[in-house]
Amino acid sequence: MLNLDRDVVIVGAGPSGLTAARELKKAGLSVAVLEARDRVGGRTWTDTIDGAMLEIGGQWVSPDQTALMGLLDELGLKMYARYRDGESVYLAPDGSRTRYTGASFPVSETTAAEMDKLTAILDGLAAEIGPEEPWAHPKARELDTISFHHWLRQNSTDEEACNNIGLFIAGGMLTKPAHAFSALQAVLMAASAGSFSNLTDEDFILDKRVIGGMQQVSLLIAAELGDDVVLNSPVRTINWEPAGEGHRVTVESERATVNARFVIMAVPPNLYSRVSYNPPLPRRQHQMHQHQSLGLVIKVHAVYSTPFWREDGLSGTGFGADALVQEVYDNTNHGDTRGTLVGFISDEKADAVFELSAGDRKKKVLESIASFLGDKALDAEVYYESDWGSEEWTRGAYAASYDLGGLHRYGKDQHANVGPIFWSSSDLAAEGYQHVDGAVRMGQATAARIVAANSRVAAVPVA
Ligand SMILES: Cc1cc2nc3c(=O)[nH]c(=O)nc-3n(C[C@H](O)[C@H](O)[C@H](O)COP(=O)(O)OP(=O)(O)OC[C@H]3O[C@@H](n4cnc5c(N)ncnc54)[C@H](O)[C@@H]3O)c2cc1C
């Protein structure tokens, strides 16, 4: 058992916790990062499966994600653009397949007009409400007490338009059914990416990837931190008490006991209750954490001897709100001669395919990808399903959102520290919410808050 004395102990070695640790060290504070898993990176994880390098977790970077891009620069990591030449494929509700180019789905004129109308309303709300404090806006309660599903149908009677617009936020981002979260939560998701239109533009939101993989962000920071990162060490208990103008903290994990003055819980909110707090957290926190949950999505990877779809003039991009695999993209690695496709199966569709045997599931999933890109998709050389719902130290994907009514009710308290305990993860971010960029922003902001709090304590003369 390690016994460590540090200024700050950080629970979780994902991008948020590691960014915070790096910033704190830059400011002259000592840190220890305690990580439950045998690796760093959390929901970013680049691994080789059957000879293919796969991004099992987070991977894409969009042009607005400047905090992440700044960090990539500092770490000497380079990016490359996602392959997007050629036609995309749209699967209509009746299963018919249309090849198209440009940003708009090939739908009827009426449906296109309805989609444009819904997009304009959501863009307006995102601009008006913003990502910082959606709970404080005068329309917060009204928008937070109606499900996104019903809000869409309040604004349009066109079912195909509602499902297509719903897909960008429900299956596509929060990975929950549109009846399970509010219109306000949808507006936050849109505002966090700059606008709703940005979320619908795959050339924007899925613009670039990191050469060598997104997990390198965490691996490189962990290498800088050296022995200050302790793996295989789930934190079980946080004890704290007032001491002078500050606090005395003792954090107990599987492999280390750390005495410190501040703690950062850099884990998703659904895992806060895996830790015992002494004294217990306040009522407000106990309640709030029960309203934040992760969505569910299966990220499916299929690797082929060549990117065969390109020869057919296809970009590899496909959308079908009613298809099993609702979105598919070319995910070929930088400089790779093989071709990789990635597809996503969200929420209730994921529940349904998890009822199947692994063999039947693979068959159904590849058939669904083939319905976009042709029968060659059936013959994947490598097939892998990222199943984050089964990961004890995550329990879902991509990130946490509030249930209906939770955002306006609790949001204002989600950043409140409890004595020496601060919260930091992409799930609490404004810009970059649910993304690695948000994790980095939260890590930087939380470190800055602790540096400020530390200087206040240090400035008080010891009596
Ligand atoms: C399949 C998938 C695809 C995604 N795609 C994208 C994408 O393309 N682009 C993008 O920007 N984002 C994407 N994301 C989201 C992105 O990966 C996350 O937002 C980001 O990793 C969150 O970072 P974090 O540090 O806040 O939390 P995490 O990455 O979850 O890190 C938290 C860490 O805390 C550890 N931990 C938990 N409990 C304890 C405990 N009690 N004691 C010690 N350690 C603990 C965990 O093991 C983990 O390492 C994706 C996520 C998934 C799962």
TrEMBL record:
Amine oxidase domain sequence ranges: 16-450
Protein name: Putrescine oxidase
Cofactor names: FAD
This protein's record includes keyword Oxidoreductase: yes
Residues holding substrate: 344
Residues that hold FAD according to the record: 16, 35-36, 235
Keywords for this protein: Oxidoreductase
Pfam families according to UniProt: Amino_oxidase (PF01593)
InterPro entries (alphabetical): Amino_oxidase, FAD/NAD-bd_sf, Flavin_amine_oxidase, Flavin_MAO
UniProt record similarity statement: Belongs to the flavin monoamine oxidase family.
GO molecular function: putrescine oxidase activity
Presence of keyword DNA-binding: no
Gene3D superfamilies cross-referenced by the UniProt entry: FAD/NAD(P)-binding domain
Entry EC number(s): 1.4.3.10
